[in-house]
Design a protein that fits this description.
It is a single chain. The protein has a single domain (about 10-295), classed as L-arginine/glycine Amidinotransferase, Chain A (5-stranded Propeller), CATH 3.75.10. Helix 2 links the parallel strand 4 and strand 5. It is α/β, with parallel strands linked by helices. The protein is globular. It has helices at about 40-55, 95-110, 150-155, 195-205, 215, 240-245, 280-290, 290-295, and strands at about 10-15, 60-65, 80, 85-90, 115, 130-135, 135-140, 160-165, 180, 185-190, 205-210, 225, 230-235, 250-255, 270. Bound molecules: arginine. Arginine binds next to loops.
């Protein structure tokens, strides 16, 4: 059932082993610089996550962590991949900016074309705020991404951008309140958004699995979906797991509690490398030039 219309992406990821993970600064409400990180446990949990993702059928590439950037484990934020092009993040906080440079180098070495979505003039854009949903790019405006970057994204990729305003400081990235499951379903936490944002999501997702704010605080929306397997942080509410199973998904629970100290979970640690916006581009073009294409 869940495999009826699986996502077109999600089988190839870039991840960063947290050799130098620390909570040195607090740029989101989850981070507490006085709470120590158990280095061995963090590495064991991350290795367990990679195994679970590979077991689910995905391939994982690795980038080495720069010792100066303790948050680099949250690879989802480096940028958006579109075929052989990667549009790199312009991080809100300077502590994370060198991560985009490291990612730029990594992608360049692999032959990707790299570009920057935003700069100081338009503001910041972080890739944890964007998902391909149907034929639109759903992008948040809020704590980490400025609304002015949405036009730049639409132009750069030639796609339709649907904007959703994040108004919840603890659900500061879209990937904490939104998890695409397949072509019609997603986990959604509307308490993260304003009323108009929720309407926008409803128009894009025919079958939402709605979770409460408290449920979102378990990071259950910060999961990775590989075909019909949902790799989800342990601690996820049983109700949510059961609802996914009723839809035909297999749920793999993985303990990444040590990584939650940085304010991120499984999705945050994985940058999808197999996203391609061609179909979205075609549909946006058809909208602009209906007669020419009908031709
Ligand atoms: N400490 C990181 C930050 O605040 C966590 C990033 C979580 N990543 C994510 N995609 N939500 O930027």
């Amino acid at each position: 059932m869940a495999e009826d219309r699986p996502l077109s992406w999600g089988r190839h990821y870039l991840m960063c082993r947290p050799e130098h993970f620390r909570v040195d600064y607090a740029i989101n409400p989850w981070m507490d610089t006085t709470s120590p990180v158990d280095h061995d446990l963090v590495l064991a949990q991350w290795d367990g996550l990679v195994e679970a993702i590979e077991r689910a059928g995905a391939t994982v590439e690795r980038i080495r962590q720069n010792p100066e950037t303790p948050d680099m484990v949250y690879a989802m934020n480096y940028g958006i991949v579109d075929g052989d092009h990667v549009a790199l993040t312009n991080f809100r906080y300077e502590q994370r900016r060198p991560e985009a440079e490291a990612a730029e180098w990594w992608f360049g070495e692999l032959g990707f074309r790299t570009s920057r979505i935003a700069d100081a003039r338009v503001g910041s854009f972080e890739a944890g705020d964007a998902f391909l949903v149907g034929d639109s790019l759903l992008v948040a405006a809020g704590p980490r991404t400025d609304l002015a970057t949405h036009d730049v994204l639409a132009e750069t990729f030639g796609v339709r951008v649907a904007s959703v305003a994040i108004v919840h400081p603890a659900l500061y990235h879209l990937d904490l309140s939104f998890c695409p499951l397949d072509e019609t379903r997603a986990i959604v936490a509307p308490s993260a958004w304003d009323a108009e944002g929720w309407r926008t999501v409803q128009a894009l997702v025919p079958d939402p699995l709605v979770i409460t704010e408290q449920e979102a605080f378990t990071f259950c929306a910060n999961s990775v979906v590989v075909g019909n397997v949902v790799v989800m942080p342990s601690g996820a509410p049983t109700r949510v797991v059961r609802a996914l199973e009723a839809w035909g998904f297999d749920v793999e629970l993985v303990d990444v509690s040590e990584l939650h100290k940085g304010g991120g979970s499984i999705r945050c640690m994985t940058l999808p490398l197999d996203t391609n916006l061609d179909a979205a581009r075609l549909s946006a073009a058809a909208e602009r030039w209906p007669t020419a294409l009908a031709g």
